[in-house]
């Protein structure tokens, strides 16, 4: 977060756009991989086959930003950045590296941002919007697979924090709504002896989840996959805890309020709904800036996605019939990019 004020603040914000585009462009050009070891500028330009002028502009700016280090040996990708910027076969999934490619697509969708604001997101060309179709059977399996790759790759540490915050051992049956491929549900069940679970999501995601479950015989008979629509598919009875992890934010108050009412009806007396989300502070705070900026991306993602504060969620939960609600603050954030996670517990 910048400490600049006045005109300097405006200029720093404008330069920030250029810095982001430079980072994504250099990554796409494989500049950082070509410079994984110190290399002379002439050799680097030859390896990348770039014009002299544009090469110099990009490399000079990367060095000035600290994206490249330069000394008498040449230029090189700094060791602290190499795990995220240098490509390698079989490299483990990195959220930061994924976002480099993902945000390149987001930037294109935000090119006409005034139109997004005026249309409340309806004018967005963002390709992953297809994941939010009203007809769940019409969702492109490739779009679902791309969306699920990120969700699956980032769930493990979120589960660790959730398990450190909430005791699932008090429950017998878990139903995870908008459960994607079932990775959250499966991880909670695997870590909780005696717990059985099910997850519900669109058919394209559940098909991936069923294939993943086939490779986990230890969960056979303990996790059920349900293909459907969280707004229309009847919620099965007999589950004493229902979860929504990283999904309530994707819907407007009318739709998520309707889901909360359906959950309340499906739960037995004393049953609980857990809403696991990043949540806004009750008033605007500068330290929550990454979440407010993420909200700008939401204009491209859909016509309904938004972060809420715990108080806003509580109002929707109480309107759905939940009498007792509380907010649990985890002991730590699962990721640097995933701050301000809360677990709301609503009891019927």
Automatic annotation (TrEMBL):
Q: Name one GO biological process term.
A: methylation
Identify the keywords attached in UniProt to this record, alphabetized: Methyltransferase, S-adenosyl-L-methionine, Transferase
Instruction: Identify the residues that the record assigns to the O-methyltransferase dimerisation domain, covering every copy.
Output: 11-73
SUPFAM superfamilies xref list? S-adenosyl-L-methionine-dependent methyltransferases
> CDD domains, alphabetically?
AdoMet_MTases
Pfam families per the record?
A: Dimerisation, Methyltransf_2
Q: Which residues, if any, are the signal sequence?
A: none
O-methyltransferase C-terminal domain location? 138-323
Q: Which GO terms describe its molecular function?
A: O-methyltransferase activity; protein dimerization activity
Q: Which Gene3D superfamilies has this protein been placed in?
A: Vaccinia Virus protein VP39, Winged helix-like DNA-binding domain superfamily/Winged helix DNA-binding domain
**What is the name of the protein in this document?**
Demethylspheroidene O-methyltransferase
